[in-house]
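Re: the pair you flagged

First of the two:
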Amino acid sequence: MKVSDDVWTDFRTANRNSSVAIALGDLVTREVDRYRARRVQEGSADEQELMEALERANELHAELAELVKRIERRLEVRAARSR
């Protein structure tokens, strides 16, 4: 792998709480997820890939719903403080 020193420094800073191996594993996983999503969008995914995509979509939906709830609670608290 070849990157400039400043890119490597920022990468290490951004991932200072995990090992390089874990961070690189996360990057590989994200790239594979994108590849699989493209296959689904193109209509070239098989049944197993479609089932896995549906499962992942449901997981992401749940994570986003929880994030939205937390953001809404924070905004409600801020609005109550400013009254």
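Second of the two:
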Amino acid sequence: MTALFANGTNFYHAEVNLDDEGIYILRNGSYPFFAFASKVEYMNIHFMDYQTLSKEIVAFNKDYRDLTTSELYEPIQPDGRKLLLRTKIL
């Protein structure tokens, strides 16, 4: 496992090796959200679902919520009336 890094982003990430595969665990810097990725580069993150590890993290801390790939790849839709972003996360 590598150290947790923010590197000027709004999330922390750590790389772990599971089943001889490098997997990144990403944690939001402000909210109790986490996600998984197979690749983390500036402006280029390949998100993935990893249900087994997700269940372990939630069992450890029930305040955290796994963001699925369908949520993460969903386009953000601005609300034109108030210029607010609408999301289904909160």
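Residues 11-86 form one domain.

-B.
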